[in-house]
Amino acid sequence: MRENGEDVELLWDEIKKMVIKTICSAQPIISHHYKSCQPDDYYQHMCFEILGFDFLISNKMKPMLLEINHTPSFSCDSPLDRDVKARVIHDSLQIMNLTTKMKKK
Question: How many helices (H) and strands (E) does the chain have?
Answer without folding.
Answer: 3, 2
